[in-house]
Amino acid sequence: MKDNFNQIGKSFPIQDAALKVTGALRYTADLKHPHELHAKMLFSPHAHARVISIDTTEAEALTGVVAVAHTFNTPLIAFNSVIKYIGHKPIMDEYLFPRIVRYVGDRVAAVAAETVEIAAQAVKLIKVEYEVLPAVLTIDEAMTPGAPDINGNNNLQFKMEKSSGDVDAGFNNSYKIYESTYYVPAVHHGMIENLAVTASYNPDGLLTIWAPSQKSVQHKQITSELFNIPMNNIRVITPAVGGGFGNRSDYSNRGIPVLLAMKTGRPVTLRYNRRENIVGTNTRQGAKATLKTGVNKDGIIVAQYMDMITNSGSYATTGGPMILGAMSSKFYKMIKCPNMKFKGSSVNTNNPIGSAMRGYGSPQVFAAICGQYNEIAKDLNIDITEFYEKNLVDPDGIEQLSKKSLGNPRPKDAMHKGMEMFEWDKKPIREVRENGRYLYGKGMSVACHGNGVFGIDRDMTATTLRLNEDGTALLSVCSHEMGNGCIISLKQIVAEVLGLEVSDIRSIHGNTDVGGWSNGESASRGLFVEGGAAYKVALQMKERLTKYAAEYLRVKEDTLVFGNKEISTTQLKCDPIKFIDLVSYVHEKHQEDFIEACTYASVALPGSYGAHFADVLVDTETGKVKVLDYVAIHDVGRVINPMIIEGQLHGGIHMGLGYALSEEITIDKNGKVTSDSFKKYHMLHANEMPNIKTAFIEEGDFGGPYGAKSIGESSTVPVASTVINAISNAIGKNIYQYPAKPEKILAILKE
Amino acid sequence: VSFIVNDKKVELAVEKNWTLLKVLREKLDLTGAKPGCETGDCGACKVLLDGKAVNSCTTNIMKVQDRTVTTVEGLSKGTELHPIQSAFIEAGAVQCGYCTPGMIITAKSLLDENPHPTEEEIRNSLDNNLCRCTGYVKIVDAIQLATKKLEES
Fold first, then answer.
1. Residue A477 forms beta bridges with which residues?
2. Which of B85, B130, B133, B145 to mutate to test the interface with A (most CBs of A within 10 A)?
């Protein structure tokens, strides 16, 4: 698409960049509050236990301790960390402090004290009597008949099934059928900012929460329900977000400082260290996926059946219907095959909480799909790209379940562009190098993610836009800048519509007192839906400016042209009217100000597709994998900000490489997380990264602003399977268990 | 303990087991250095100690006696950014921004010692700095851009 834009398609640095490079931006933990207390948590040492009694006498006797909260002095109100709106009833199984703790790291008690050191000391003085209960630590353990029942439903949280076409007939007519089971681990989001939450409760009844958040509107509502505070008396402020990736969607432990602030009447800050972050906040759900694919002699998929089991860990949060719904929706967005069945189950285990993380459900689904496609192509002796060519949806593709249009899906264009940039056809699929010490392999994957929750949930965002007297603007929206470039993109959209410069617009965001209701930055809504809200409110402002400019210039509205903070007409030869003069004219003549508000509700849910390519070198002596070149192409409709979109994709690749190679939350036989530091939880360093090249397919799609769709989550979805496929091709054996750590590769090589 | 921080001499009463990071953040209100791991693994807390990048979270405050500390706040002159800081903005190396101060300090330490590093030297210098947003691509670009800016200035 070639269009003449002034602000769209141009690079602008992220919101607050200058504050970030100078250290001036204050994140939650950087703020100081007068008379502030510091909190520390007592976490469960047991994977599963009943709390019999708690003795806080010694802790409370310690000088400087102000309050101690636990299950016996706190209301037992069941909630879910991802309640979205009043009346939303996901599985409610969390408590501020439960009577039965469900994992090593569960909330047992919290202390508020004058200093963090005193709070930490007091936590050690709390005496808890537990009745230890049997635990289940893996999906397989949880599903074994007769296993200890941890959730009152034999560990099953939810199950569902969706089917299209005639799956049995499809398999009966298959030339070959492939079936394998894939295991992917729980992983940590790895945002570098540790969770910090401050709550203050004023004598006049106003509660304020400061915390990194992706869903502060929802956190306000959960707070209102848990503490019985009317919503007009709660504000949730997000000073900054040092990485979100889904971890900051969940309410998690935000209620604890609120509870302590209400008990003490003083501001209370809870700051987590890295171990507490890894163990005590949510993780990506681990999963076990069995995939069965039937193909005909031409390599066309005629039936596909996925049996997906997700590990929700100790509590439901986004597990159950939410994760399985998200997974099944992606399952149906990729290929043309009419006969498809998705069976999903989510189970509870005594693991840390499994919940939302970048790509929500898709990395697990495509680990199986893309892994199996690689295996099928090899078996049928056709190039994997040829196999995708035969089976991927075309731009006129329909979703087989609903028989509705998929929008303008361009996975094939992305694949073609990637093949060219990677020089796919020139590279061997595998090669033995240096007398057999190194094995070279190449691999690729095509996968997708969504754009918002249209048709599934309340997919709306409300916003306001004000014009200052000089024609500059103020955008208010309860979006959160978490490093994804959401805010700068919204400004670009408003600037484009109104003929302003991006620097003419300031935004207030990350504060529940501004903007209006929004479903937050989850489900890749940031640009697709919130950007839609920015577009809509800017159009409303443009309409009003148009009306008054036509009146002032005495010309027809459709002759007006916006640009450079002024409005000109093609009807007459006259000077344009500057915004500053038009606002003054309207203030004087009509005594009206320029304030627009709108609610934008999404109208579509297209897919965002990515085709990724990588080659690797496997060291057969050490089992270590070096990823050499990496090419990623994404179908994004339109690029709003090249610098931002590239950064998002690079970060998604980093996260996916860790999923493939090194990242895993490991748990010992007692349920204790052993990968509880950055030393033991290995995220890739700069010198472990491949050479990365990226490009974007810009063919526009329906529903997003200027035809744009998401990148944030889709960026990480095809990564891990791309690398796993390259390793599989290099070593000539399939890998069914992530991550491919050196010891695992050596074991496979020995087989 | 007394030491120089961002060209200013400070004298403070501290506990012997405190870290430099704690003192910077809690006593001096210099919150540019960030806690990310407090085990020396992520580099978000890096500051220059006598010109060399160190993790302030694992540096005992007593070791700082009579020495010179520069934090990310000390690099800019008023509102005028240091060339490395401008390069990070222009190259798009800033996303969530939490690792950024540590990255900039590491870059400063590297470029003071080696004004023309190769890409490999840049990547190796970042071995003790974690970033979850950028895949390091634009951070490496930014440091390369900074070498050019420093040459010109």
1. A463, A509
2. B133
Phi–psi pair at A49, nearest 5 degrees = -160, 150
CA distances from A81 to A91, A96, A186, A233 (A): 10, 10, 18, 21
From A614, A325, A343, A337, select the one nearest A450 (Cα to Cα).
Answer: A325
- Cβ–Cβ < 8 Å for B131, B103: yes
Please, which pLDDT band fits residue A1 given cuts at 50, 70 and 90? Answer: very low
What sign does the dihedral A182-A105-A666-B124 (CA atoms) show?
positive
Q: How far apart are CA B21 and CA B71, in angstroms?
A: 10
User: How many degrees, rounded to 5, is the angle at CA A19 between CA B71 and CA A639?
Assistant: 130
Which residue, among A272, A262, A139, has the nearest Cα to A197 in the 3D structure?
Answer: A272
- Write down the residue that tokens 């040829």 correspond to: A386
> Residue A202: which residues within 8 A CB-CB, separation 6 or more?
A208
Distance, in Å, from the CA atom of A339 to the CA atom of A648, rounded to the nearest integer, reads 35
Q: Are B32 and A30 in contact (CB under 8 A)?
A: no
Alpha carbon distance B23, B21 (integer Å): 5
Asked whether the beta carbons of residue B127 and residue A685 sit closer than 8 angstroms, the reply is yes
Beta strands at A625-635 and A608-619: parallel, antiparallel or unpaired: antiparallel
* Pairwise CB contact (< 8 Å): A23 & B132: no
Q: How many CB atoms are closer than 10 A to CB A307?
A: 18
Phi, psi of A561 (to 5 degrees): -130, 130
- Tens of pLDDT, residue by residue over A38-65, are 999 999 999 999 999 999 999 999 999 9
pLDDT confidence band for B153 (50 / 70 / 90)? confident
The SS3 assignment for A369 reads: helix
Q: Give the C-alpha separation, A297 to A402, whole Å.
A: 28
Question: DSSP class of residue A353?
Answer: P
Mark residue A377 as left, alpha or beta (left: phi above 0; alpha: psi -120 to 50; beta: remaining).
Answer: alpha
Are the C-beta atoms of residues A304 and A292 closer than 8 Å to each other? yes
Q: Does A595 touch chain B (CB under 8 A)?
A: no
ipTM of the complex: 0.99
Alpha-carbon distance of A559 to B31, in angstroms, equals: 53
Nearest to A324 by CA among A441, A158, A435: A158
